[in-house]
Recover the amino acids of this structure.
């Protein structure tokens, strides 16, 4: 069947008088997708189906929200059960306690647990807690790291011309949005990541002022950039020595890299950790966990954190079923996603090399990204901004659509292997890549 997207086009035209950029987030609209986005209708396992009847292997998986793939039967059953007996009470519930106890078993530092709905919200609470317990005003975040759309952290997380970034010793703070609270960024320090000396300088320049250092464990919003050996431990040591709260943002890496996330994989002991995305298996479930002495400051709203939908019963049912599946058979799901990802990544690398394409594939376990570059590796945000052919990546991904493979066309947003992906998905994706590369001359990458 020839690849047609007429129905998507028609729907896109209908959205014009009602939705902004055809959807509910700028990252889903036509700016990433060329003329118009593809409208998806249903999903099952590793596949999604669009409104024109095209089937795709889905490597985007709801920006990482679906660690078991689409419509996993145990998640469907859990959601149906909760929906039929009360989707949300906004009272204490046994299932909330059960999920919190599961987190304590799985996540090394989860002495206390507080649920929220999104990664953004969990991070807002973490920052407020850090400021509350330290009595200090400032937070330190890294260039290229994204922690949600909260004003205080919405800075220097877009891809920009490297000439706009200033020196590593004093990065220019570049707000990612108009309309931010004018003073919000006064208390935000921005430092380059993967550079311990620069971090040390930034901390020394603000003695007794920094409440929290916030980091992703793997830089996951600039493709996939792993931490340099020893970097996160150095950061942790520096934070502890300076009385600074170490907040690890595991919104992306949580329930993905390992059952206990980057914390477990890199053997870290952060003070606070935030989760989102993969936790709710498609439902909005997030959590803030951490040291009891810090978390207890949430009592009586000493540090205030509310939310009508926190720990919705339906979300907790989904999260409980998710954690059961992910940890079954001694965490077999994680062994599976790592194995499938290694096969996919090495197959892609081999194809690019054989076809003389200047592209690399970076991955940490099941998180992977293709990068069109002649560099052997991309090690930080500035290299990402400077050395990537982002237009080529976008054209490449858009051309994969017609061969039945779906991923985000944004070079900053990585692909994800889930429990639902199997060897057949790898084989078909490699075949599709071969076809896309054959058509590459016309497509322009
Ligand atoms: C590392 C990281 N932190 C926080 C967030 C925000 O999460 P949410 O979109 O659920 O608000 C994201 C979202 O992409 C993220 O990648």
């Amino acid at each position: 069947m020839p690849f047609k997207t007429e129905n998507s086009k028609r729907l896109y035209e209908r959205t014009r008088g009602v939705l902004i950029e055809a959807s509910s987030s700028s990252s889903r609209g036509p700016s990433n997708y060329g003329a118009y986005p593809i409208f998806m209708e249903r999903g099952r396992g590793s596949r999604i189906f669009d409104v024109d009847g095209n089937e795709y292997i889905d490597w985007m998986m709801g920006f990482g929200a679906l660690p078991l793939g689409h419509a996993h039967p145990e998640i469907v059953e859990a959601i149906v059960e909760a929906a039929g007996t009360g989707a949300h009470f906004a009272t204490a519930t046994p299932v909330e306690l059960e999920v919190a106890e599961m987190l304590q078993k799985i996540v090394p530092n989860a002495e206390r647990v507080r649920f929220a709905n999104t990664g953004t919200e969990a991070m807002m609470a973490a920052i407020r807690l850090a400021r509350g317990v330290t009595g200090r005003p400032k937070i330190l975040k890294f260039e290229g790291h994204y922690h949600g759309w909260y004003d205080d952290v919405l800075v220097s997380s877009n891809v920009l011309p490297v000439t706009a970034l200033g020196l590593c010793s004093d990065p220019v703070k570049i707000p990612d949005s108009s309309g931010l609270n004018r003073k919000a960024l006064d208390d935000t320090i921005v430092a380059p990541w993967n550079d311990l000396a620069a971090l040390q300088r930034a901390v020394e320049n603000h003695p007794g002022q920094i409440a929290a250092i916030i980091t992703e464990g793997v830089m996951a919003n600039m493709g996939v950039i792993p931490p340099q050996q020893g970097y996160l431990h150095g950061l942790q040591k520096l934070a502890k020595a300076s009385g600074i709260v170490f907040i690890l943002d595991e919104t992306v890496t949580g329930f993905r890299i390992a059952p206990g996330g980057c914390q477990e994989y890199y053997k870290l002991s952060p003070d606070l950790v935030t989760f989102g995305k993969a936790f709710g298996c498609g439902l909005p479930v997030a959590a803030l966990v951490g040291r009891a002495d810090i978390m207890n400051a949430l009592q009586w709203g000493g540090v205030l954190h509310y939310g009508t939908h926190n720990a919705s019963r339906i979300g907790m049912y989904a999260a409980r079923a998710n954690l059961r599946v992910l940890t079954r058979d001694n965490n077999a799901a994680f062994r599976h996603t790592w194995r499938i990802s290694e096969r996919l990544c090495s197959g892609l690398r081999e194809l690019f090399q054989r076809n003389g394409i200047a592209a690399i594939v970076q991955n940490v376990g099941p998180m992977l990204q293709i990068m069109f570059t002649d560099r052997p590796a991309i090690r930080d945000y500035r290299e990402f901004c400077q050395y990537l052919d982002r237009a080529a990546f976008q054209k490449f991904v858009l051309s994969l659509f017609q061969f039945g493979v779906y991923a985000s066309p944004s070079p900053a947003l990585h692909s994800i292997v889930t429990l639902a992906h199997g060897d057949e998905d790898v084989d078909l994706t490699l075949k599709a890549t071969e076809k896309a590369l054959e058509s590459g001359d016309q497509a322009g990458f």
